[in-house]
Amino acid sequence: MASTLRFNGRVVLVTGAGGGLGRAYALAFAERGASVVDSVEEGEKIVKTALDAFGRIDIVINNAGILRDRSFSRISDEDWDKIQRVHLRGSFLVTRAAWDHMKKQKFGRIIMTSSASGIYGNFGQANYCAAKLGLLGLSNCLAVEGKKNNIHCNTIAPTAGSRMTQSILPEDLVEALKPDYVAPLVLWLCHESCEENGGLFEVGAGWIGKLRWERSLGALVRQRTQPMTPEAVKANWTKICDFDNATKPKSIQESIGSIVEALNKINSGGEVSANPTSRATSATTSEFARAIGHKFPPLYSSYAELDTIMYALGVGASIKEPKDMKFIYEGSSDFSCLPTFGVILAQKSIMNGGLAEIPGLSINLAKILHGEQYLELYKPIPRAGKLRCEAIVADILDKGSGLVILVDVYTYSGEELICYNQFSIFVVGSGGSGGKRTSDKAKAAVAIPNRPPDAVLTDTTSLNQAALYRLSGDWNPLHIDPNFASLAGFDKPILHGLCTFGFSARHVLQQFADNDVSRFKAIKVRFAKPVYPGQTLQTEMWKEGNRIHFQTKVQETGGIVISNAYVDLVPASAISAKTPSEGAGLQSTLVFEEIGRRLQGIGEEVVKKVRAVFEWHITKGENTAAKWTIDLKTGSGKVYQGPAKGSADVTITLSDEDFMEVVLGKLDPQKGSPLCSVVLQVPVRPPLFGDMSPGLGNGEPERTLGQSLQGLTSLFLQSSLFIGTRNKGLRAYSQQNTYKARI
Hints:
Elements: E1 11-15, H1 20-31, E2 35-39, H2 43-54, E3 59-62, H3 77-105, E4 108-113, H4 116-120, H5 126-146, E5 151-158, H6 171-176, H7 183-190, E6 200-204, E7 207-211, H8 230-235, H9 237-240, H10 252-268, H11 276-281, H12 285-291, E8 299-303, H13 305-314, H14 325-328, H15 341-351, E9 368-377, E10 385-398, E11 402-413, E12 416-428, E13 455-460, H16 465-469, H17 482-487, H18 497-513, E14 520-527, E15 536-544, E16 547-554, E17 560-569, H19 572-578, H20 588-599, H21 603-610, E18 612-620, E19 623-632, E20 638-641, E21 650-655, H22 656-663, E22 676-682, H23 701-707, H24 709-717, E23 737-742
Parallel strand pairs: 1-2, 1-3, 3-4, 4-5, 5-6, 18-21
Antiparallel strand pairs: 6-7, 8-10, 9-12, 9-14, 10-11, 11-12, 13-15, 14-17, 15-16, 16-17, 18-19, 19-20, 21-22, 22-23
Helix pairs in contact: 1-7, 2-3, 3-5
């Protein structure tokens, strides 16, 4: 014997409880322990009565109704308005009055009363039918909005004898359709143990049935290169109305997903696949085998420094943090691309409809979630370039509630592997076919240590964060359009998961690697919850050797948005060991070492005259092979390998070959094609070179810089470096400016 469903401690409001259905509901709830407040009219005010008497409101049964039947042409404005006011507006007002109280107590059950007339239509009841189907729409919306607060809303379409039906049904049928045969369904739907939400039920005479929507497979009636015409609709009409292989959408997300799939088919010249929802759900192991190993078309992608800067700004890099300048200013001596930019390059290869083309699967794009992400770098990402991405389906897992598709993406520069990504894509509702649940190909997430974090960093995202991040290539309107976000079940547009991913990785890189991108090896995250722009991200980090475990929370709510995550770093000692060899094989290394020796003994005199720090980038091919700094600003001056310890006043980029040609006097820097790139930072009023010969100024920075390069090269490249007097340099009077020139 099943246990009795009780409502002790619950407060129930029933509208239209003077007789019939409403009275049956009120008596049934009271018999099972509920406190019942009923109302024939003025339902909105009775909510206050319930709160005053019992301090809460748990269940609302919107039952009140009247009839004003007329054929359509005879319906008066008064008849129309009164029906809408009692049925639709009345239910709205009562429910709204109770809504916030239900949200606060994290519990609520609501019943809307529709009708078969509203569902199917009935002669002479246009006003009544419109109101009753309107209640179904209201109920569906409340089911979506209330779900997160444990508020369930369902709709019934009862057929029962009542005062409204006594005049249109035979007496014996009215007796057979007792309200008592409807009440048990209402009580079950309102019980705390019932998980039904957003359902529609016909009920009467002891029979109950659930209704759902069904949609035909439909047909594509346009092609990418041709207009859509009425003739094309006519030609496909039979197919449009054919319910073989029909789908049964349950949400607006599923509806939109099918439209998106159709759009992808139009763009690719394909056909709509049969029943995508059921096919994905019933995919067999053999179908998985067809999908595993599927290769996406290679994607070639060019990017410039602007793109890497835009990405850095999109994940929170800012001029407020001086160490971030290397990611957002191309003139920085150590300008670098954030390691997580690697996901942007890879993501494009699977975003352009590629998932819909996986053989053996037909994926509803509206049911896709980004579950986890892994990124591994084999060398720092170039500041600009053209790369090739090759993606492949590595494996498919059946988690019961959905499928997990593992997509591996390899990114190359020429034939050199730059980075590797693994996207874990969860397809909701597509599991249950008995496939394997685990894979040795999956990059596993790792639980965080069971102790307080070693470090915590926070960043408040901008209200424009999603709008800025999407400029890096993820154009999903979910992150910018409030209406689209609402359709997806969110209060407002959400932040991209990979944007939060970028914030978190930047925190780890800043805290434990001093923003040295060469130390970044790999990152793995699991996405847990969405973030809204304007919220504060809090990254909690634990160091265990060269692995930094972390999780990211929304500070305002405490909710974890990234879990079971880690970053693997290259040991600092490994980076240091590489540094001495960076200049190996370069002729310029000998010159800089000689400059350092000659500086001894005359350094203080030179520092007084020059007062500037020079950073040299020596290139081999198209890559920087070595960096040298000549500090003529502090103490007695010094020369050392590596970037400036602080900011450089002048940065010069020059190939090793041209450097030596100038040193040996074989190449005149004032003649021929451009030799080098020179960037000057002028932060203070005093001239960079004291009273040395005139140069930069008077609004003509690039021309005068070119005229004075020989003095610059003489100053640092000639063997009589610090004692020559001819063509001695530059003068700069501008404040807070950067001058650039190619010489």
